[in-house]
Amino acid sequence: MAVELTEDERIVLDFHPHWTTLLRSILMLVFIAVAAGAIIFFVPDWDMRTQIRLGVAAAALVVALAFSLVPFLRWFFTRYILTTHRLVIRVGIFSRTGRDIPLNRVNDAQFSHNLIQRLLGSGTLTVESGGENGQLVLRNIPRVETVQRDMYELINEPRAPRPPA
């Protein structure tokens, strides 16, 4: 995904939500595969045994796609990009939504994570900006402390004034 950058802007970080966002989908996929495999294995010896097995396999495939592929695509197409001038958020598979928060409007950026999140390297980033939008809470951010630190450094970095247009 390409983000249009201004002349003096550069990308500092470009990342997806943490992989743990997909944990529920992965567990659901395993459960569906085990359940379908057990049903297929234990189908009684009826005349329609093959058709029942194919039906169970097809139903399991549809359910697996709904509960695993869609969340994966949602994770894959969610991007957070921190540039020298703004925080860019892009979300969506077919229709996309985006939000750009200029760093010069950010009042505060803080992170939090519990013990499990610390062990896995993720957390929640809360960005407070001036204006009508208030706080933005981003969950499951990988290396949340690094993201918050980099954002803080960029916010407080002295910039040369832009020449008048």
UniProtKB/TrEMBL annotation:
It comes from Actinocorallia longicatena. Keywords: Membrane, Transmembrane, Transmembrane helix. It holds the Pfam family bPH_2. This is YdbS-like PH domain-containing protein. The keyword Membrane applies. Residues 75-149 form the YdbS-like PH domain. PANTHER family: BLL0215 PROTEIN. The chain crosses the membrane at residues 22-43, 55-77. InterPro entries: YdbS-like_PH (IPR005182).
